Recover the amino acids of this structure.
């Protein structure tokens, strides 16, 4: 028997273990392959709500495909996350032991990171399993696994051999705290208050000066030119002349370049090729020297004047301004964008270094063509422009990082710095012997690869590539990728590029970009705001299945999710309602071991529920095909809660009181439909549905691998179903009136049917008993329009008029007065909120959260007034 109380945690633990013990989630069967690659979470901590959403949606599709007979692989794994992981371990090492990684040495430090990553991975996998992720855990991969690392080295060597990986000296975004180059995509632009200094540069011939505006005076020691626009009349006479770099005796030339904006600052800009991206490009065009005046920690080098060496960049800025004195002719406060590292949070430095690069332009061309030709598609398609905009303007990809944790670059250097690219040291040593004619000591490049390089290979490296394994042949390319928009550049585009290059095929055909999960007020979650919601906390409070269903129900393409924990409770109630409905069905003798055929079912309510089931199955399948998780969730919710629990179970109580065929048929239909409904709900709520299916039908196979329900074959426009549609519509209208006018449950009402047609009379005769029970009626009266009661709530169903006399049921005068008074009070509240929201000063000073709270309160009040005005109309 089904327990009286529904306790989610008990059944979740039970079924999580049972699924694994039963063989886990490995692909099985001979059906067509279906493959999803899990976006591997970083081994840096707990899963966030975005992870929970991604994994829930992937799990829903995985369970659906598995039930449809596909040989389904959901490939799980985690990512080593070079920068984030190394940063966390380094900080912990210093806080706990006051030591740096240099103090430990590379090998000892990496041992610590490995220990951290393994513990973190166990925690992450536990969290994923906690939300019901049915990935094939026997295939769990880590981006630093040996075979995946071998694939990374193979890819590097091949790209280098083909001329697509090379070394170059270019400007990079340099993080002085982490002491590594980072990607443009890892730069966070922060809007900060700053200063614009206008500085006098004397002309070398002593005949005048030129005023240069800058926000970074500390870099002036690296100036090798001053640039002006060639058509700027103010400076045309100075082009080709030289100026003296302040605080030094160095002369620098005044040049012309069309990239200079005459409207910016003074229109004359200092050119520091080694410490500014645009300056680097101008320097290359004009053959300027690049003077590095800052080291990797952001401290001044020996290339600066005496007294500035070793100063931190910001201390140097202050000292430069102090030393310049009257040479600073103007100082203006400005607000400008300052690039920061998204991991370290410190201001970045444009820095000139030698790095390894990948020719992304060449790799991007097939990836662009893949979208235009329809080999891949984004859902929603609005993300096409984002994908194409980046690929069509792509820059060389800096793939080296000055870190210890990660895939070490497979490059070895000889004594003369000749470089040997090889998949392992043995191959490098062999190449060195051939080059030098003898055995030679080699040193491996200290840098590691950008994390996203290995992640770009994920869809095929996890399947055994570069070997042509059976898994690779069967499961590549995959079917769909589900992820957030924030890694379209980082990961999605790069997987497409690498998949096409190495496997001559896109890694997946569909790319579903899910929404951003915000807090209930529409704000982005952040630790700073204190509005981060831990999905594990939600599952503990409301149950995993309720959280899963909630997230799926809000997954509307193109619309961000506003996560309101209070609303999750509604789906906890939904689970409880279904639990209680199953208990009722079991107690009522529902039969679950007999197949029902629509052709033999006679009782109208039974035919009706079969039609509703068929319609629900069709809607869910269509929704899955278009990735409308929200519509699929809404459809099964409406069927389970309203069609089955609210209407059918209540309707069945009348049929079950009758002896004979009607009762037997109802028991069979009830049991059969309930099992099908659990099967439909299973991808969303796997634990609950497995538990109830086992309790109702002990011999039923696990839903995990049982077939997907087929829709009953119902004829269109079935008369019996039309009868029940009428019954539902009339009962719903009566309930609406009772709720609006707060009619006590104990007060039975009279339903007057005004001059019904023959079809309505037949429906009343056939379903009168059920309608009286469902609508809490005392009786049903058929009356002529000439004798209709004057004080009654009226409604129309299928062209026929109905009336509910109100005399003696509610105190009409008191109810009208209450509604009118409440409406007036709420309108006054609306006026106050609107006045506040229309106040520009309030909007400028109030926190965003407060503004959102007022907007939501305004919306709620407007809805409340609409409901009360509708109720009031029933009394007039």
């Amino acid at each position: 028997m089904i327990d009286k109380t529904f306790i989610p945690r008990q059944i979740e633990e039970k079924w999580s273990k049972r699924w694994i013990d039963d063989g886990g989630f490995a692909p099985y069967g001979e059906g067509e392959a279906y493959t999803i690659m899990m976006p591997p979470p970083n081994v840096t901590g707990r899963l966030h709500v975005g992870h929970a959403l991604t994994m829930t949606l992937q799990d829903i599709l995985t369970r659906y495909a598995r039930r449809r007979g596909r040989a389904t692989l959901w490939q799980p794994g985690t990512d080593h996350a070079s920068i984030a992981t190394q940063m966390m371990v380094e900080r912990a090492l210093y806080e706990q032991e006051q030591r740096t990684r240099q103090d430990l040495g590379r090998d000892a430090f990496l041992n610590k990171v490995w220990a951290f990553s393994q513990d973190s991975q166990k925690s992450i996998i536990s969290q994923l399993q906690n939300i019901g992720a049915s990935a094939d855990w026997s295939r769990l991969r880590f981006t630093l696994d040996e075979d995946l690392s071998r694939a990374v080295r193979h890819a590097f060597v091949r790209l280098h051999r083909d001329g697509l990986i090379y070394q170059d000296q270019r400007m990079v975004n340099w993080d002085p705290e982490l002491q590594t180059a980072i990607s443009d995509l890892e730069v966070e632009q922060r809007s900060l208050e700053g200063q614009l200094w206008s500085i006098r540069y004397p002309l070398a011939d002593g005949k005048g000066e030129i005023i240069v505006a800058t926000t970074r005076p500390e870099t002036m020691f690296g100036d090798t030119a001053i640039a002006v626009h060639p058509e700027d009349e103010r400076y045309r006479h100075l082009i080709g002349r030289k100026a003296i770099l302040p605080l030094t005796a160095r002369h620098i030339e005044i040049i012309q370049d069309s990239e200079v904006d005459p409207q910016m600052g003074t229109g004359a800009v200092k050119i520091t090729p080694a410490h500014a991206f645009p300056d680097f490009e101008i320097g290359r065009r004009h053959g300027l020297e690049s003077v590095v005046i800052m080291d990797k920690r952001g401290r001044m080098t020996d290339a600066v004047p005496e007294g500035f060496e070793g100063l931190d960049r910001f201390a140097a800025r202050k000292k430069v301004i102090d030393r310049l004195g009257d040479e600073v002719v103007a100082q203006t406060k400005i607000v400008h964008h300052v690039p920061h590292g998204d991991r370290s949070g410190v201001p970045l430095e444009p820095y000139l270094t030698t790095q390894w690069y990948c020719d992304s332009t060449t790799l991007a061309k097939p990836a662009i063509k893949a979208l235009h030709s329809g080999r891949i598609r984004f859902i929603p398609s609005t993300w096409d422009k984002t994908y194409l905009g980046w690929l069509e303007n792509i820059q060389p990809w800096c793939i080296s990082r000055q870190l210890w944790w990660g895939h070490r670059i497979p490059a070895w250097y000889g004594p003369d710095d000749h470089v040997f690219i090889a998949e392992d040291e043995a191959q490098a040593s062999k190449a060195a012997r051939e080059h030098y004619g003898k055995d030679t000591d080699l040193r491996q490049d200290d840098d590691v690869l950008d994390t996203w390089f290995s992640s770009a290979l994920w869809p095929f490296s996890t399947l055994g590539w570069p070997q042509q394994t059976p898994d690779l042949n069967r499961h590549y390319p995959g079917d769909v990728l589900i992820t957030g928009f924030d890694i379209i550049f980082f990961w999605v585009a790069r997987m497409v590029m690498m998949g096409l290059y190495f496997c001559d095929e896109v890694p997946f055909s569909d790319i579903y970009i899910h929404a951003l999960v915000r807090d209930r007020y529409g704000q982005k979650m952040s630790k700073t705001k204190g509005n981060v919601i831990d999905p594990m906390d939600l599952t503990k409070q409301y149950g995993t299945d309720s959280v899963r269903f909630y997230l799926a129900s809000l997954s509307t393409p193109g619309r961000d999710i506003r996560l309101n924990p209070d609303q999750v409770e509604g789906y906890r109630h939904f689970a409880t309602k279904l639990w209680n409905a199953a208990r009722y069905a079991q107690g009522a003798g529902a039969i679950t071991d007999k197949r029902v055929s629509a052709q033999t079912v006679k009782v109208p309510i039974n035919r009706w529920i079969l039609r509703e089931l068929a319609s629900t199955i069709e809607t869910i399948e269509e929704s899955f095909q278009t990735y409308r998780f929200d519509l699929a969730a809404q459809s099964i919710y409406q069927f389970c809660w309203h069609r089955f629990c609210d209407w059918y179970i209540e309707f069945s109580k009348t049929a079950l009181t009758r002896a004979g065929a009607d009762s037997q048929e109802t028991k069979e239909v009830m049991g059969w439909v309930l099992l099908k409904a659990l099967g439909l709900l299973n991808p969303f709520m796997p634990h609950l549905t497995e538990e109830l299916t086992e309790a109702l039908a002990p011999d039923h196979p696990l839903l995990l691998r049982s077939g997907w329900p087929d829709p009953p074959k119902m004829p269109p426009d079935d008369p019996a179903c039309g009868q029940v549609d009428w019954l539902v519509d009339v009962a719903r209208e009566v309930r609406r009136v009772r709720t609006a006018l707060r009619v006590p449950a104990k007060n039975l009402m009279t339903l007057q049917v005004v001059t019904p047609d023959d079809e309505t009379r037949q429906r009343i005769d056939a379903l009168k008993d059920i309608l009286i029970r469902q609508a809490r009626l005392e009786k049903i009266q058929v009356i002529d329009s000439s004798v209709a009661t004057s004080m009654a709530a009226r409604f129309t169903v299928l062209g026929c008029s109905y009336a509910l006399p109100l005399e003696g049921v509610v105190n009409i005068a008191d109810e009208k007065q209450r509604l009118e008074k409440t409406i007036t009070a709420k309108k006054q509240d609306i006026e106050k909120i609107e006045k506040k929201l229309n106040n520009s000063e309030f909007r400028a000073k109030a926190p965003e959260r407060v503004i959102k709270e007022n907007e939501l309160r305004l919306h709620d009040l407007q809805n409340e007034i609409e409901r009360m005005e509708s109720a009031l109309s029933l009394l007039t």
